[in-house]
Amino acid sequence: MVTIFRWLVRLTVALILVSVALIALAWYFAIRSLPDYDASFRIGGIAAPVEIVRTTEDVPHIFGANDRDVFFALGLAHAQDRLFQMTVLRRAAQGRLAEIYGPGALPADDLARRLGLYRNARASVEAQDPATAEALRAYADGVNAWVEQVNLGARGRGAPEFFLYPDEIPYWEPADSLAILKLLAASSTVQMRREVLRARLSLADPARGQDVVAAPGEPAMPAYAELFPGAPVAPSERAVPRPDWTTTLAGYLSPSLGASANGFAAASERTAAAGALLANDPQFALTAPGLWYLARIELASGGVIGGTIPGIPAILSGRNTRLAWGVTPAQIDDQDLYIEEVQPGDAGRYRGASGWTEFATSRETLHVRGAEDRQITLRETENGPIIPAFHLGLANILPGGHVAALSWTGGRGDDRSMSALIGLMRAQDRRAAAQSLGDLVAPALIVTLADDQGVGQVLAGAVPQRDPAHQTLGRMPAPGWLPANRWQGVKSVAADTADLAPTHGVVASNGVQSPSQPGLGFDGGDRYRLDRLRYLINSREVHSRDSFIAAQNDIVSPAARALLPLVGADLWYTDEPAALGTPERMRQDALALLANWDGAMNEHMPEPLIYAAWMRALQTRLAQDDLGPLTDDLTELFPSFIERVYRNTGGASAWCDIRQSAPVETCTQIARQALDRALLDLSSRFGPDLASWRWGDLHYARQLHPALGDMRGMSYIVNLLQSTSGGASTVATAGYLGFGRNPWLNVSGAAYRGVYDLADPDSSVFVIATGQSGHPLSRHYDDMAELWRRGEYVGMSLDPELARAAATGITHLQPLAQ
């Protein structure tokens, strides 16, 4: 027995020593990939010495003798801090995620290939202007130079993720940056997804289904089933299967994911310091690392500082010495789905405008880690590529014997959008900026501008030209063989939509609203949020940087202020006081809290939680009876729908009556039942004491690492969790997951915020949602996350001496020739 015990002790000690050795070895290789910001490199690809000055927050300030060397150094800096993210974004655009992630990424790869993101990006390289072509080539050379340094210096493969997801890193090419911009454009628009939803609503309830999503003043359109006489189109019998959130974010960006932003500005006559102010906060899915990266580059035209996206060699939101700009996804209707009839007996032909026509076809191979390769056939019609039925719920709306094709402004191979964005940061005033934006195709943007002479906004991008006789005006899929439904071309609108001299000296936007110009669509930005933003901007005659910061971080829900008086109109103070502990008393206590609430979605208060749960339960109760399983796919709250019902707009109060029951229910009864349902759910989670509930207990940001975030043990290291204020309709937008046990999980928001003060440019402030580094062991991985949560910022100056004085590291690049 003694001998056995001794051997067990020896084996235990040996296992402990081996485990410690393995952990130490993993730690060693992981920290080898942390860059040394004080290093010097002799490197090819630059003509003169370059400095990369890193500030306390790891923001690179890049100084070189010429623009080419500066773009080279930006590519190197991006690769130093975000190499894995850059390669994943490139893979997402190429449709090659399954090569590292396995079969779960196949749907994303399939869609990227069918959209032709990388194919069109390669074709667009030759379309760029000479200055942009040089910037793209220099940036690619800089990325490749760092990859060479990683290989030469055994620097842990450049990022620890590469040890878990083995990956050869091909050299960066200019087409890779263009492809990431294409992916950004595809991710920013939700029109394809919204068309499918409108069609499903029409099938579920032809008479009233569009009430859920219809914009004020939107013209009527035919029932979806009527568009395809003779073809069977059955209503949905089940909800659309959802990929988990980690799979959705496997590539950081995903087509039809959606994006938004606030952009607002005040001219010098409306500011306390007599200099223009501009604020911008692009809103995307929250990831770790975040999508955005702060940088300053010194070009021949002057210094430029602000937010970049690794992989793209441009300051997308920021300022130079004379001009500030911010970008807002315009949310125009830039996509149309067409239903194409396949020729009976010949799956290779479809019904075109002039008869049966051959599909244009090609074959591609999807390589899959740990599984067999997949062969897919790409088919294309005159209207665009065929999108298979398993994407975005298309199977629920396709008539028998038909397929769906997509027309999208971004599906072009002559796209000069990168030239427009690089030209924008070189512009010295609003008019030059607006002129540069004439080349923008996708993503369509509302660009807010400010200079010493004033402020303005430009809607820039390609807009489809639709025939007024189009059967659905692009709101639902339409028969693709009818000439009236087809696009009559696309048009750049920047020159037609530039408002460079607003009457009152202020501008504000979060997307196209109630468009008067044909073709822009009907699904613009959140009108409740825009009304609140305009109130904040117009309620003051004189603004300061602090008032702009306060507006950017405003957490008052205008939707709550609009809905609660309507929904609860007949509920407040209408019953006798109930006994403690009863459902009636809980309802009365909840209503008393909401009656005195100002609508602030504060993470420390119970009222936002009660409101959000009530409205979600109410929307479900209104829709379930009429829409059936489709209700489960209404993952966002539609405040306009609830307002329409409770104002009885166009007889919409009919939604309150439950068809399956004999009595005729009133909207007041439905509101009471929904509130009781919400309170029952919340009390089961948090107990009966309403005053102890907190919005932040369910509304917290989960900034997810797409590759490692679901790995046991690793998730605690790489994911960032923190409770957050705000909501889906607040100016400080904090979007919800919308399904699962916690539908209020905060999964999207302003991953970058900037406020630019042209009266004192060096007092401009910036912040991103995580940190500059993508390395989980770096102190810069999450050092700005808490600032971002609290609505705080860091300062960034264009003064070279200030940058050097605050430097925590200076990387010196020397050309090989010296």
UniProtKB/TrEMBL annotation:
A Pfam family this chain is assigned to: Penicil_amidase
Q: What SUPFAM superfamilies does the record point to?
A: N-terminal nucleophile aminohydrolases (Ntn hydrolases) (SSF56235)
Transmembrane ranges, per UniProt, are 7-30
The protein's organism comes out as: Paracoccus mangrovi
The answer to whether the entry has keyword Iron is no
InterPro entries according to UniProt: Ntn_hydrolases_N, Pen/GL7ACA/AHL_acylase, Penicillin_amidase_A-knob, Penicillin_amidase_dom1, Penicillin_amidase_N_B-knob, S45
The UniProt keywords, alphabetically, are: Hydrolase, Membrane, Transmembrane, Transmembrane helix, Zymogen
Write the protein's name. Penicillin acylase family protein
Q: Which family does it belong to?
A: Belongs to the peptidase S45 family.
Q: Highest taxon of the source?
A: Bacteria
